[in-house]
């Protein structure tokens, strides 16, 4: 399938293609970047990638619905031979354009350049830091399939963020860390002993070509495509690591449209009196129920009990029996978490989250203090 055919498949209209490839046999990474109106930052982004990867990476950049000079800047760099890159300019049809869709297209096009290369995801407003490639190489050499790196803010932009009561950011961080700590206590992950950053972001993750063929493509969700891809990797039993060693610095500007992710959270926390928080943050009762269901699915010995629980949770009997019969329990949990009505996530406002924080911390402490070998959810 050609570039144009892939663009159409993803819902876009191809405006042009610019390409310069140095030495295909040297390509070990394909850097996948969606970009829209990034003229102020794209040059720094590409320069940092070239400085880190040199000739071992090829950049696939999807400029979508852009009306600034992003296209001119990148096409000039390619024409000069300064970077090894494939630039695809598109216009989305029928209002289909989203960052997840552009990222998915970039990953799709990457296979045309180097089908076995590792796929590195970043953004057009992001700079990679020194040592990133070596850190990714080390993780992949250890056998990991998906590596989730560290994302920090560009220091020069962070200095100019509007003031925010630090207690708000602290409360969200503590709630998120406590939730991740509880998961690590109840479902220990030997590859990621607590503490770890526990995050995947489109600005900094990498995946092997084989893992992406198994768990991909990137899901076409409204936002959070990175988390959705991670869930698919978990369902397929792939090895995932949260590493602070591959680092990037990304923009924290507020002057752009955003429907989800880090940018939207920054905007909400600085412009709303009682903003919605990350959908991953749940009340302790709902969070505990989610963990109990996962325990029943992944570790429970009674399949009839699971079937009965799913049916009582409003899942169709035939579907309940099918999911309970799957040999891969991680895949069964992937579908059950997605389909069971009782597990649908409900967004909390900051004030509600803050009110539940002491209860969540008590739950964490009870689970942490439980005697070794005791049932993990008695603390609830």
Short recap of the structure:
By secondary structure, this protein is of the alpha/beta class. The protein contains 15 helices and 9 strands.
Structural features, described:
There is one protein chain. The protein is of the alpha/beta class and 380 residues long. The protein has two domains: 3-179 and 189-271, Spore Coat Polysaccharide Biosynthesis Protein SpsA, Chain A (Alpha-Beta Complex); 284-344, no CATH class. Helix content is 46%, strand content 16%. The chain is built from 15 helices and nine strands. The protein has helices at residues 3-9, 42-53, 70-79, 99-113, 132-141, 155-158, 166-186, 209-215, 225-235, 261-271, 284-299, 303-312, 317-325, 329-339, 350-369, and strands at 12-20, 29-35, 57-64, 85-92, 118-121, 126-128, 146-153, 205-207, 240-250. It has a nine-stranded mixed beta sheet with strand order 1-4-3-2-5-8-7-9-6, with helices on both faces. Helix 7 (166-186) runs parallel beside helix 15 (350-369) and helix 11 packs antiparallel against helix 14.
């Amino acid at each position: 399938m050609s570039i144009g055919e892939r663009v159409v498949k993803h819902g876009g209209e191809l405006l042009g293609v610019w390409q310069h490839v140095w030495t295909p046999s040297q390509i070990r990474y394909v850097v996948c970047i969606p970009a829209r109106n990034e003229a102020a930052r794209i040059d720094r982004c590409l320069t940092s990638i070239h400085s880190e990867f040199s000739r071992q990476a090829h950049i696939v950049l999807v400029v979508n619905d852009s009306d600034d000079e992003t296209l001119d800047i990148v096409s000039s760099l390619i024409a000069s031979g300064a970077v090894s890159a494939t630039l695809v300019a598109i216009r989305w049809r029928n209002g289909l354009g989203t960052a997840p869709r552009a990222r998915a297209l970039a990953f799709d096009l990457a296979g045309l350049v180097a089908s076995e290369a590792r796929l590195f995801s970043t953004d057009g407003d992001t700079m990679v830091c020194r040592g990133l490639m070596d850190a990714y190489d080390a993780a992949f050499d250890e056998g990991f399939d998906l590596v989730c790196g560290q994302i920090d803010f560009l220091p020069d932009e962070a200095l100019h963020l509007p003031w925010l009561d630090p207690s708000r950011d602290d409360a969200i961080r503590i709630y998120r860390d406590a939730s991740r700590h509880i998961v690590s206590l109840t479902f220990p992950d030997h590859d990621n002993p607590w503490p770890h950053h526990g995050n995947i972001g489109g600005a900094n993750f990498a995946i092997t070509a084989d893992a992406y063929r198994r768990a991909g493509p990137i899901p076409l969700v409204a936002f959070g495509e990175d988390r959705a891809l991670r869930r698919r990797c978990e369902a397929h039993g792939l090895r995932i690591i949260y590493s602070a060693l591959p680092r990037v610095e990304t923009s924290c500007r507020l002057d752009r449209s955003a429907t989800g992710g880090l940018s939207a959270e920054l905007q909400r926390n600085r412009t709303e009196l009682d903003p919605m928080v990350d959908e991953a943050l749940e009340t302790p009762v709902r969070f505990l129920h989610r963990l109990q269901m996962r325990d029943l699915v992944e570790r429970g010995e009674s399949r009839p009990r699971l079937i009965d629980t799913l049916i009582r949770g409003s899942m169709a009997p035939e579907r309940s029996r099918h999911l309970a019969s799957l040999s891969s329990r991680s895949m069964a949990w992937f579908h059950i978490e997605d389909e069971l009505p009782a597990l649908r996530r409900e967004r909390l406002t900051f004030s509600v989250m803050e009110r539940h924080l002491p209860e969540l911390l008590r739950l964490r402490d009870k689970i942490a203090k439980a005697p070794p070998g005791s049932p993990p959810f008695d603390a609830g």
